[in-house]
Each structure stands twice: as C-alpha cells, then as structure tokens.
Specification:
Elements: H1 3-9, H2 16-27, H3 32-35, H4 57-63
C-alpha cells in the first residue's frame, strides 16, 4: 500500500502533504513520503504497515 493509499485507509482527512509528513515521522522516515507519496509504507523491519494488527489505530493515536 502506498503512503497516499495508507492515509486514505487510515481515515486521514487533512492536507495530503501534511499527512505524508506525519506518516514519515510515524514510521521513522522523515520527509521521505513528501517526496515519494506513491512509495510503499513499510515498518523498520520491512513489513507492510497495513498488515500490522494494530494499524491504522496506532497511526490515528499518533495524530493525537
């Protein structure tokens, strides 16, 4: 799932650029998704983030 798709799946409703920034911070990739919104969202172990059992709720908690 791409960063853009993940934000939609997670129910993010803000500006795309801001969401991409927040997603990058969440997974520890900094501004990466701002430059590559169609890159796959992976955990630090290289697993697809959407396959983690506690997503997207943990991302939503990160948004505060």
């Amino acid at each position: 799932m791409t960063a853009r798709e993940f934000l939609e799946w997670a129910g993010y409703e803000g500006e795309l650029e801001h969401g991409l920034f927040l997603l990058g911070q969440y997974v520890g990739r900094g501004n990466f998704y701002l430059h590559f919104p169609d890159a796959d969202v992976l955990t630090q172990e290289g697993l697809p983030l959407e396959e983690m059992p506690d997503e997207p709720s943990k991302f939503q908690e990160h948004l505060g």
